[in-house]
Design goal:
- This protein is mostly helical.
- Helices cover 63% and strands 0% of the residues.
- The longest helix is centred in the middle third of the chain and has 18 residues.
- The chain is globular, with a radius of gyration of 19 Å.
- The termini are far apart.
Length: 240
């Protein structure tokens, strides 16, 4: 049984999460800029409400929130992420993603079900892509047994789960399992969802920085399987 199937994420008790969430909600709410919020929400296609915090303001507040806090355990990461995701405003989700990016090395393969919950709850590219490349990717790199989960995710009916599988090797460079990457692209080559088609091209374009000939040959061989968008993205920097 895969790690994803074996565990449903729950919110564990965490004194650190209690501290962080109390500081976070106080700081973010006090700095909210309601007139700015509608434009941010519209830009993200109304996926969630916003407090109206710009990225520089949000990051500065986050540093203040985390000042003096200890390194988290995996349970703390789980609690902070899930509790942030339960809050409606998108800035809290961004905080959770940033926190996980910073501390993913303290999480084991057992954390993967938490990432799946985050990917499939209030999903949009602004959180999914960072989780794929900076959280799921490092988890799989640290525990190759999770490749079986990625093999299941690429076939998932949820397009955001499939997109995550496509993008999880985005930062692997020379460590990329090209056979698996190419197989994933073929598996979803005819997918009707824009974001999956885009992810196919993006994953190939990124790997082309490491092995352009392999990507060029693959696209030439399998071009008929892909939407023009995927092909265009894949070859953007290397040409046909």
């Amino acid at each position: 049984m895969s790690v994803t199937e074996a565990r449903v994420p729950v919110v564990p008790d965490s004194a650190l999460a209690d501290t962080v969430l109390e500081r976070l909600t106080t700081a973010y709410a006090a700095a909210a800029d309601p007139p700015r919020a509608p434009a941010l929400r519209a830009y993200m296609k109304d996926v969630a409400p916003f407090l109206g915090l710009t990225a520089p303001v949000r990051r500065a507040l986050s540093r203040t929130v985390l000042a003096g806090t200890p390194r988290p355990r995996e349970a703390d990461c789980t609690a902070i992420a899930l509790r942030c995701w339960d809050l409606p405003e998108r800035e809290y989700h961004y905080f959770a993603v940033d926190y996980l990016r910073r501390h993913v090395g303290r999480c084991s393969s057992r954390f993967l079900p938490v990432t799946r919950h985050l990917v499939t709850t209030v999903p949009w590219w602004d959180t999914v892509d960072l989780l794929a490349a900076h959280v799921v990717g490092p988890l799989v790199a640290a525990d190759p047994r999770l490749r079986a989960d990625m093999d299941a995710w690429i076939a998932d009916e949820n397009p955001w789960v499939a997109r995550t599988a496509l993008l999880h090797q985005l930062r692997y460079r020379q460590r990329t399992d090209s056979e698996r990457l190419f197989a994933y692209c073929v598996r979803q080559g005819g997918h009707p969802d824009f974001f999956v088609r885009k992810a196919i091209g993006w994953s190939l374009r990124e790997y082309a920085k490491t092995d352009p000939e392999a990507v060029r040959d693959f696209v030439a061989r399998e071009r008929g399987r892909f939407a023009p968008l995927s092909v265009r993205e894949a070859l953007r920097n290397i040409g046909p």
